[in-house]
Amino acid sequence: SAVISQKPSRDICQRGTSLTIQCQVDSQVTMMFWYRQQPGQSLTLIATANQGSEATYESGFVIDKFPISRPNLTFSTLTVSNMSPEDSSIYLCSGGGHMNTEAFFGQGTRLTVV
Amino acid sequence: KQEVTQIPAALSVPEGENLVLNCSFTDSAIYNLQWFRQDPGKGLTSLLLIQSSQREQTSGRLNASLDKSSGRSTLYIAASQPGDSATYLCAVNGNNRLAFGKGNQVVVIP
Predict the structure, then answer these.
(1) Among A43, A89, A94, which would you mutate to test the B interface (most chain B Cβ atoms within 10 Å of its Cβ)?
(2) Residue A103 DSSP one-character state
(3) Cα–Cα distances in Å, from B74 out to A47, A65, B26, B69?
(4) Angstrom distances, CA of residue A12 to CA of A78, A83, B78
């Protein structure tokens, strides 16, 4: 399967600031997804990143808080805006996983907000 | 809404024992089911993908079965090793999105 390079792998950020997470795929993928994993919990889908159009957000997540870009079929970014300690989580990007295709994940970004 | 449950939540086994991890899901209308491994603070590594038309998949010491009609999958890890210590996540693919269980946290004791 394809390989996703995600960065940064971890960061410690001040309350009120923003962090942009990048994911680069080594081949073109139709669909990319962004997930959040809060401590001790499973993965929750934030949004589907659509190439050439706005991202599709899940209930409870809004574009102002988590703006997403998808300029082409190999790259996407997620920004966590105006951070608070409640945003401390692991954020993961994913490709594939639609229809009968295999899903693959980046290495994750471990975010701590202080 | 798809609900995915993994039992047991955590288990410890001595090295060499076989591991049996269970996953159940509520909606049988799925494309496939995928098992992942996650090490602490890291991303997910895909272990096995079972299409909805398949009954099982094998890779080395790993074997995963799927009974779609009853909404169950089981991951078997033969002859466990300390390096198998991790959290194992089951993800069900339906409606072009993955629904995850909370995971089976495994510790293999040397």
Answers:
(1) A43
(2) P
(3) 29, 38, 15, 14
(4) 16, 11, 39
B51 → closest Cβ in A100, A106, A108: A100
- Residue range A19-52, pLDDT digits in tens: 999 999 999 998 899 999 998 888 999 999 988 8
Closest CB from A41, A102, A110 relative to B49: A102
Q: Which two tokens stand for residue A43?
A: 């993965």
Give the closest of B49, B96, B102 to A99, CB-based: B96
User: What is the full DSSP assignment across A52-98?
Assistant: TSPPEEPTT--TTTS-EEEEETTEEEEEE-S--GGG-EEEEEEE--S
Write the DSSP symbol of residue B15: T
**pLDDT tens figures, B34-89:** 999 999 888 999 999 999 999 999 999 999 999 999 999 999 999 999 999 999 99
User: Is there a contact between B43 and A100 if contact means CB atoms under 8 Å apart?
Assistant: no
Per the CB < 8 Å rule, is B44 touching A92? yes
